[in-house]
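Archive transcription. Copying these from loose printouts into the bound notebook so they stop getting lost. Printout 1 of 2:
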Amino acid sequence: MQQVDLFGNTIIYNEPRTVVSGYRIYDAEQKRRTVRNDLPELYPDLPEKKYDIIYADPPWDYGGKMQFDKSGRKDINVNWQKDIFISAANFKYPTLKINELKKIPLFEIAKDDCLLFMWVTNPHLALGIELGQAWGFEYRTVAFVWDKMNHNPGQYTMSYCELCLVFKRGKIPTPRGSRNEKQLIRVPRGEHSEKPLEALRAIERMFPTQDRIELFARHKPENWDVWGLDVREEFEEKPQEKQNERYYYAAASI
């Protein structure tokens, strides 16, 4: 039976409703957008070749941490009428934890005298040095400092730069090329995690005659071997061209 107030108006009681949190929304979205490795193993075999120069951009894992903006605040995005903005590295490519990266047997493709150039994000600096050492290299210095000319918010200061470390195994490969390459690279950032081509070109000038490979590559530069999800077609078997030769493709990209 309907109830009325003193003025004859029907009293309508609000039905109880479930309060949806921002976490409930973006957690489901995160699970939907996370990119996972579609290969049966963590990584495939590395090339059956040894290199003087290894250039790597590991797909660092952030433990599920995401970037947000104010759309994730319920006092601003009332009743979640607008989509909540979230972004994460593993929305773009499969990431690997440090213990998984250590399992890649990099020593199998490194010559006795070899340099490893490796990109690290600032929060992963200590892990980057740890990884290089686990792969059998000695940390030497910062090879390149990339000023992206655009900042990201941080807990302490606004972040503009990313580092490329250099590690050494044995001696520096010879013969040497250019000896006057600049450490600072000032190039606007491009696609997510895409590294400046200037760094790769500088390495080419420094070591123009050496055997070189790029790990976790996005494309195949001329005169480089590559290993990465984005370049797996470079290593898939092509029986019409190479019936007795084994090809390899990659497990993870940056």
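Printout 2 of 2:
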Amino acid sequence: MLKVQQVSKWYEGNRGVHKLDFEMQRGEIVGFLGPNGAGKTTTMRMITGYLQPSEGVITIDGIPIQDKGRQARSKIGYLPETPPLYGDMSVQSYLKFVASIRDVPAREQKLRISEMISRLGLNGREKQLVRSLSKGYKQRLGLAGAIIHNPDLLVLDEPTSGLDPNQILEIRQLIQEIGENHTVLLSTHILPEVDALCNRVLIIHEGQLVLDGRPDALGGSMEDGFKVKVEVKGNREQVLDVLQAWGKVEVEPLASALSHADMKRAAREQDLTGVLLTGASNEDFREELFYVLSAARLPILEMKKESLSLENIFQQLTTRETGAGQMGDQAADAVSSTENTATGVKVDHEESASSGDKAVEAKDTGGNQS
């Protein structure tokens, strides 16, 4: 669906991003992570056609966005961190406006608008002015505008920023539902959101892609050895002697993971020993460990595989220098105008055109939406 091939962007001799190379398949929800200034915004603006790469090729469903921009952009929906809505429009008129500039056929617009209102939970607010909506409902409306033309690729920039916990859960559920029929690129600083929503993670640092993988497999792939935390019912010295005699793991004694009440009850019966075991490689040794302790008549009360969290991985990868010397997203922000990306209109700071004039401009420019 999306191919980013050896893409770089320079700003006045400074590198914004450097030789990015990744693909996204249909139906994937991919988390796009990186610290501030890493190049996320630059990358998303190139993917959505608002910036031209200095080198490399970006294709949407096989269509090169540099050569066939309008055709490629028709397959993209984009929701920036702050949805670019028009406060003096009603919910319904805003969606009609977006549907028109996104070339939704006139005969389908009424049905499509009704579908968006129902799907995004905007029922009963069709006539309400956009400026009177809560932030959560503005996010819903922004999502509706981003998908009203049924794009293949949806790009979301911090979609839950500034929302309360209930609103965050609602928007996450909507993204999961949307991801069933769309490919989604999700930029966020909320790492648990990636664990909850994404089946793949990209991490960018100083303009370079430093990680590409599945969230559930990242921790083990970066560990020096397979790790297991074990709670054993047995005398501490005996447990340590058995494990050290086994010789296949490094043994680190731990405080008990049991609750205070369980510890007191178990202590009355027999000693408890907690250990962290690290193998020499990433090979899973849990089955063999079970038989080793079983043979020594040492019952395992708890066994848990240990791995790096996404937070740990992110910190490791984004605190080391890559030597690229990028300006990153600050440069992109400095050179780009204020962009009304929900409608595809680039709005200059001094522009005072009416909404009707904006619609004409958007139509004349092909309704470019990033």
